[in-house]
Amino acid sequence: MWEYSDKVREHFFNPRNSGPLDGANAVGDVGSIQCGDALRLMLKVDPQSGVIEDAHFQTFGCGSAIASSSALTEIIKGMTVDQALTVSNQDIADYLDGLPPEKMHCSVMGREALQAAVANYRGETWSDEHEEGALVCKCFAVDAVLIEDVIKANNLNTVEEVTFYTKAGGGCTACHEGVEEILAKVKAARAGPGEVSPPPACPATPAAPRPPAARMPLVQKIRRIEEVLEAVRPMLQRDHGDVELADVQGRKIYVHLKGACAGCMMEAATLGGIQQKMIEALGELVQVLPAALMPAEA
Prior knowledge:
Structural class: alpha+beta
Strand content: 15-25%
CATH architecture of the largest domain: Alpha-Beta Complex
Radius of gyration: 21 Å
Number of domains: 3
Strand order of the largest sheet: 1-2-3
Low-confidence stretches: 129-133, 199-213
Number of helices: 10
CATH topology of the largest domain: Sufe protein. Chain: A
Shape: globular
CATH class of the largest domain: Alpha Beta
C-alpha cells in the first residue's frame, strides 16, 4: 500500500472548496470519466485586479485527486491569474507534504485544469484534444506534448516515472516505445551540443518481446470481482451504504452504489478505492464506473 502524508489524508477526508462555485467566471475541465480521472476547476476572478477571489473544484478520481484539487484551490486563492500560472504540479505535491510517486499524475491534472481555467477566463482556446498522430498513449489519451512537458518540468528519466506522472504506459504498454523516444529526445536536448550523451545500449542482443498478459476467464474474473465487493461491503454498510455489481464489459466494471453511498459527495472517492482494490486483485488495469454510465443497448 502507498504511504500518504497527514496533509493528503486531511484534504481527502475534509476537502476544501469542493462543489459548484456561484458566480464563477473561469472554468477549466480536464480528463474524462472514461479515462478514470476528471477534474473541473472553477474560479471567481476580479475583472479589475485579476485576483482569484475564490476557487472550487469537482473531481471524479481517487483520494489523491481529491486532495490535489483541494490543495490547488487553497494555493491559488488570493493570487493573480499570472501568479497562479507559475504554480507547478510539484508545488501542489509539496503543499501536501508529498504524494506517492504512483499518484503524481493527480497533481499534473490539477496543473492542467488551472491552465484551462485561466485560458477560459481570458477567452482563449485551450484543449487537451490531440491532433492526428500526436496521441502516444491511447489507453489514457495522453499526447506527446504533455509527456515532453512533464518530463522537462519534473526531470523524469524512465518510462515508469512518466507513467506515475501522466498515466501514459499504465495500460497495455504498447506506447512504451513512444515514451522512450520522447525521453531520449529530452535527454539529448539536456546534454546540449557541447556535451556528450552516454553511448546507446549495445544492440547485439535485442530485448525479448514482452509476453502478452494471460487473460483471465470471464467467470473467474467475475468471481474475483465479487470477492472484492464482498470485502469492501462491510465498510460501506457501516455508513448505511452498499455496492452491487451491475456488469463487466472488458476492462470496465460497472457497479450500483446503494443506500447512503448513492449520490454521496464522496462517491468518486469510494469508486476510486474500489477500483484500486480491483486492480490489485485482478492484476490488470480496470475502471470501476457507476452503472449510470453503462452504454445503452442497441
